Amino acid sequence: MEENKKQQKDENTEEETELSIPKYSKGKLFFCYFVALVWVSIIVFGLTTALSGILTLIGNTVSVPKIIAIVATIYFFFRLTLSLGNHWRTSDSEIGTAVTNFPNPFYDPNFQPGPLLLQRQYNTLYSEYRRQSILLKNSKKYVRELEEILSAFESKLRVLLRHNDNSNRLIRSLNFLYQTKDIEFVPKMLRNILAECVTVLEKDQSDKSISLFQVRDDKLIIIESVRINAESIVKRTFEKGQGFAGYIWEKEKPEIVNEIDPEDNRFNDFKLPATPIGSILGFPLKVDGLFLGVLCLQSEEENGFNTADLRTIEYYSRLCTMVLLYDKMKYEGHKEGA
């Protein structure tokens, strides 16, 4: 919370800095007008000296200071006249005299006086422009963030809805196969579970494959699969601690490996034909210390899984565990009956 407040404060400070018009240094300002004064003085004295010389030649001797005084007086009256006229045109107040006031007939609502007002208006407009630019920039950033959040939410919602539909289908299949005493109850249910399982992953499902291993005679063998070649199904068996499935058996904990290291012994292909994989997810199937098998999902791409997939796959792993446990109990029951 404190970090968010600090970050927000920094952003506000940054925005205020961007909004403010860059200040002109006082030293630079003084030097600018000083140079202007010197330059104007040179021009004025140069022109008045030339004018004084011309007047002297034609018989009218006029000194340079006098010419400057005359020009200054004329300019002074001009500026006063201009300022007073501008004031009357911009103000609708009455014109006052020493005797009385009378209505201002010169008021012009469309008149905009001198450069100073224009500069102030420019500063105001420029500040507003910068403020709007910053707001637009922030709005675009927030829109992008919102789009990402909505996209992630939509993805999770889509997975959740699909997971709900999958669960309904699987329960209906379970009820039907059990009620009809289907002799292929176990393989059919496992096949249905794996088919539904691959559809609830958050990332692309088209490159995924699944292997369901069962422990038989202290070895893991593939009893059901999706997109696994027949030779691998028959020949790919693992002892405890051997291969990735054997590793999950040994650790008895789910795990995701999103970058396959060819030097990692867990991913030795044992010279069997197989599609190269970029990432893999393994989930142990166990009940109260009884280890029944391993559910493995493979992706052809790296980073094919995330932690959310583990939570989703857990449900399908539990279903597989239930079916395998049912098969084991049924087998042991028949064995005892015999």
Automatic annotation (TrEMBL):
Enumerate the SMART domains for this protein. GAF (SM00065)
Endoplasmic reticulum in keyword set: no
Annotated TM spans: 30-58, 64-82
In Swiss-Prot or TrEMBL terms, this protein is called GAF domain-containing protein
Listed InterPro entries:
GAF, GAF-like_dom_sf
Taking every annotated instance into account, which residue ranges of this chain make up the domain GAF?
Answer: 189-334
Native source organism of the sequence: Cytobacillus firmus
Which top-level group of life is the source organism from?
Bacteria
What keywords tag this UniProt record?
Membrane, Plasmid, Transmembrane, Transmembrane helix
